[in-house]
Amino acid sequence: MPALLTPPHRCFLEGNMDQPELICIGEGAAADGHLVAFSRVCPGKEEPNDDSAAIIYTPCGSIVMAVADGVGGAPLGYKASAIAMECLAESLTASTLDPALHSADLRPAILDGIEKANAEILDMGTGAATTISVVEVRNRIARGYQVGDSMAMIVGQRGAIRWKSMSHSPVGYAIESGMIDEADAMHHDERHIVSNLVGSRSMHIEIGPAVSLSARDSIVIASDGLFDNLHLGEVSAIARVGRPLDRMNSLVKLATDRMEQTDADVPGKPDDLAILLMTP
After folding, report:
1. Where would I find the PPM-type phosphatase domain in this sequence (predicted)?
2. 68 three-class SS
3. How far apart are CA 173 and CA 181, in angstroms?
């Protein structure tokens, strides 16, 4: 039986899950349906999982979902991503403790949470850093917030990508400008370079547009363990059809297969993996 999501939040830190977890969204929530969470360390890796995820359910029925990817190779990447999730959850929880604020705009709390995480990670003084991708859903309206190359996308019932965040990286900017296409980007020598991070004095937060959700839209938020191994069209095709757990299992299986394959013509990058999937 799926767990029922109730206030205040669920965090997945240093996760190494064998199976995805199915979570029911409570009646009257921002978008009735299901959430599926999965987080697993890179195959063969002995260090902790640098990816973290969080699902925050506010008293007004809004859902905030987030994935963070601690920078691989940097000190305490797993701790940086955990700090990002905890600061976000704490900021949102604090902003909704007062019943008078239950219907308030969540944007200030989300921005405050990310900025607090940035300050705390900088205060560590270790050089740790993390990406973060956040999507809030309130009254069937979704909005994304982005730092780095963990990404989010909204997929329609027919597989159209209704919105996606932009990767904050030289390769990501090149894709958006039309200089290279997605297929070339998957094999680019600089695809792992990230130009905007939580834990940087020059951090900036990109705020996406408000997107009205249709009845059968799905939302995917994931670290680059997914998006560096699957093309966007593959993610959208899998995310839109089937039972929620089946969709997640298919995403995880294909990403794992890509991580383990050796064909130079097929994208493949062993990495930690964290995925959140909201389905109708």
Report:
1. 35-280
2. strand
3. 11
For 184-199, what is each residue's pLDDT tens digit? 556 555 566 788 999 9
The confidence score (pLDDT) of residue 269 equals: 87
Strand locations in the chain, DSSP E? 3-5, 9-12, 21-25, 34-40, 51-57, 63-69, 132-138, 141-147, 151-155, 161-164, 206-207, 211-212, 218-222, 273-279
Query: Given CA atoms 247, 249, 251, 253 in this order, what sign does their dihedral have?
Result: negative
Tell me: the pLDDT tens digits for 81-133?
999 999 999 999 887 766 655 556 899 999 999 999 999 999 999 999 999 99
Cβ within 8 Å of residue 72, ≥6 positions away = 50, 271, 272
CATH superfamily membership of 3-279: PPM-type phosphatase domain (3.60.40.10)
Domain residue spans in the chain? Answer: 3-279
Distance CA 276, CA 135 (A): 10
Q: Give residues with Cβ within 8 angstroms of 42, minimum separation 6.
A: 49, 225, 259, 270, 271, 272, 273
